[in-house]
Amino acid sequence: MTDYGHDLTFGSFLTPDNRDPHAVVERALHSERVGLDLVTFQDHPYQPAHLDAWTLMSWVAARTERVHLSANVTNLPLRNPAVLARSVAGLDLLSGGRIDLGLGAGAFWQAIGAMGGRVLTPGESVTALGEAIDIIRGIWAADDRTPLRIRGDFHTADGAKRGPAPAHDVPIWLGAYKPRMLRLVAAKGDGWLPSWSMLKSPSLAEGNAIIDEEAAAHGRDPREITRLLNINGAFGTSAEPFQGPPAQWIDLLLRLVLEDGVSTFVLGSDDPNTLAVFGEEVAPALREAAAAERTAAGTPGGRVRPAAALARRHGGIDYDGVPPALAGRAVEPGDHSYEGLRSSYVWPGSPGLVLRPQGTPQVAEALGWARAQDVPLTVRSGGHGISGRSTNDGGIVIDLGALDGVEVVDRARRLVRVGAGARWGDVAAALAPHSLAISSGDSGDVGVGGLATTAGIGLLARSFGLTVDRVRGAEVVLADGTTVHADADHHPDLFWALRGAGGNMGVVTSLDIEATELADVVFALFAHEVTDLAEFLSAWGSTTEDAPRELTPFLTLVRRQGGFVAQTYAVWAGDDTEAAAEALQPYLELAPVLQQRAHLLPYAAVVTPARPSHQGQARQRSRSALVDHIDPHTARALAGMFEDGLTSYAQIRAVGGAVNDTPADATAYAHRTQNFALSAVLRESRAAEGNAAWDRLGADALYLSFETHDHGTALTRAFPPATLERLRGIKAHYDPDHVFRTNFPIEPVSS
């Protein structure tokens, strides 16, 4: 008797009859409505009476929302494995992770040969299937940058580029009956998918024994392999298997669960009533009965991790103790999702565990559990930040990406509630129909939580101030796990600290922000050819200080042979194109213009999110400074760093205007006299020289979000003495144990 403890799932096995194409689609939709988890289709490409399975699955994927889809099973001899891998990955990405892969070695060889497929012997077909699995998994390994090279006897990939990776760990289920195929299931498969009507010898028990023994020989836990079963039948009064009333089905299926380890039952039927009884009566009753039997027997359940993945776990983390509410979405080394979550945009990381809570209570639970582990703790909102503080090595990352709601809670007050895990591009898009906007950096990929608790120097800053200037309240999970709402009347000291040093005080899960009335803006872009960089910088700075505060320009500098390219992109906060053109005209006179354009468009179109995969691909050492003016000394110092080869990329962001309307002591961000934020990427090989040259700017203030590495003077330049002293006292009250210490840590000091 074998019960592997897998969760029970139920599916349908539909005939893709093309006489009424939409009837089979309706049966798939019906399967979802009656509660089934999986919809599968026959795949016989040589059968002219059938719809092509992959075309049908694409159509059904677009019409359904929840069910997984699979061919049952895919006819490999007529489908190139590398192309099949990309078909599966593409449809999985489009469907949000709902495509599974049933594979067969082949049958009906005469029909396969008539369609141009290679006719194989039974032994050859098993070898070919093993080669195909290796190619499919190799294509899906998108994080491996090496070309895929597999030279098999029947399938070959000679330098194929890998990718894309599917949206989830696509299981490969093999339709198998003979011992050699069963051994292939054990070695390379994720599931065994036979049909009840085809099982003679070996039986389910005999097949399981072969798979389990071979899996152990390959260093696998047999529980890694799901046991599925296709069944055919109808509900009636017969004593024959799968021909009686629902109670008879439940008794038989329960024996198959407890004695033969089957956990996924796929019913071959095109009858809507049969599918409804199976999904609405049999499935829930069988789940309940199996749960009771497993509880009484003490059968272990839950996720079974491959041995290779278990070997990648880090010390200091109690992986088996992850709270149940968090365990289902937790990601650890070896998981499919790990490569996309381990790193930030700037820096690569290798955390031991990524927790992905789905609400404030789960954030509190995640924080409490993480505190009990003996590893570093990091909190991440979007992972785009230049400072690179949203990942770690060997520790725990609490990823707030699921907390991404955007809600206009009071249109009259223009009050918007934004989840800390939302991206600013999505916020802008959600507010556009309301003719509202929030100043929020220059990239739609930046996460809300990181920017809105540091400052928020964006393309509307001179017009409407920093993002923190518009925050009216925040929901915060404190170090001790309690949740509070902080605003001007509740926890005012915490509310003050959150707006500039929030990452040191708690986990902000949502913010109430006062938006501004704004629909269309003028977005302009100029590229200048520059030879005398210091002179250009001084002139650009003066022009910006003289510009109306409706205009917020940013300048990007890139060195090229023979000179520099200076790119200005600017936003005029409003739809007055004549006033915008008048304000922009002086920039055209600063140097020879290589390119110019200006458009009237919604603000949301300026900060659209690109959603790149974060692979630490922008690795850089960045320094920042806040200055009152681009005076001759500042201009010469920055130009000299380019000329000396210490940097090849720098940016100047305009602040001033509305930013400086806010009193310096109103928020923890206290820099309210400067007109410019400078940043530069230093050459890694000459970091010491670059840092020394940067310090010669003489700036006494910096912007922490653009500092990638801590250094002795970072905090004293980020926060003036009185501000830093107050922050240390607040820290001592709300985080006395210094739990939040990865983002330029502020030591708690009681006054």
From TrEMBL:
Domain of life: Bacteria
SUPFAM superfamilies reported for this sequence: Bacterial luciferase-like, FAD-binding/transporter-associated domain-like
Pfam family of the protein (one): Bac_luciferase
Molecular function per GO: FAD binding; oxidoreductase activity, acting on paired donors, with incorporation or reduction of molecular oxygen
Sequence ranges assigned to domain FAD-binding PCMH-type in this UniProt record: 347-518
Cofactor requirements of the protein: FAD
Keyword presence, Amino-acid biosynthesis: no
Keyword Oxidoreductase in annotation: yes
Keyword terms of this UniProt record: FAD, Flavoprotein, Oxidoreductase
Classification via InterPro entries: BBE (IPR012951), FAD-bd_PCMH (IPR016166), FAD-bd_PCMH-like_sf (IPR036318), FAD-bd_PCMH_sub1 (IPR016167), FAD-bd_PCMH_sub2 (IPR016169), FAD-linked_Oxidoreductase (IPR050416), Luciferase-like_dom (IPR011251), Luciferase-like_sf (IPR036661)
Family, similarity comment: Belongs to the oxygen-dependent FAD-linked oxidoreductase family.
UniProt protein name: FAD-linked oxidase
